[in-house]
């Protein structure tokens, strides 16, 4: 046998090989797959003409053949495992889907949305912005390549029958819900649920301006312009990155005015402020609050002007809290 002849050979050539290497080759400790490959190659090579090395031994040739097939098999295994780890078809080993924070089945809108979020987060880092653009382009190129190769599955559209059978919440089927959630609605794409910190900030400031007219009735009409400007500032600046400041806290940049966002801001504030005015006027007229104050049925601080100011401020608060007009930061 090969193992016996190799292990017990006393030739000068076999003495040059360390004992542990002889035992590994003879006992086949390269692993199950490498051992079988080595034995298969060894048995097929037994028909080769055996060259006699100095000393009259051929074990050195067999050992070199075993080492050759061992390292060749190891290289193949490592390359195949690296390809399995990559898994996305990119030769450099990177995964742009993971770095951008999306899945491989993400749609174009989801990829663009994730890109816009990270673009706002790293607005001051030009190097990171360039990297994000490269990652997005890689993902789009990969999706195009997979679609051309037939590896990208198409999206199965919902049939009209299933759409009718699927139950919808009552607030989505209402007129206001359709305007908020349906494509083509008047308010579609600009409605956004506020974060806790933003909700707390707008609620405290607008509540002070709205309730101030009850404590100081003469200030009721004067507080409306202040509420209007404050709500417009909240709504227009919502979603934008923080303004750069110098070491003294002064504003260090001047941003150009976004005309579409400014027009949407004015329209929303006027619309919701007008809704509040209509509700306040109907309430004052229905209960005849002015006459009730004159005869003493209600407290004197409940003036009609204070009620109107509070309802108009409430409408402006709703406009600046639940909407966002900046398209670059819409989520």
TrEMBL record:
Region listing for Disordered, in residue ranges: 78-98
Q: Which UniProt keywords apply?
A: Membrane, Transmembrane, Transmembrane helix
Q: Where are the transmembrane segments?
A: 222-239, 268-289, 301-325
CDD domains per the UniProt record, alphabetical: DnaJ
The record's listing under InterPro entries reads: CPP1-like (IPR021788), DnaJ_domain (IPR001623), J_dom_sf (IPR036869)
Record's protein name = Uncharacterized protein
What organism does the UniProt record list as the source? Cyanidioschyzon merolae (strain NIES-3377 / 10D) (Unicellular red alga)
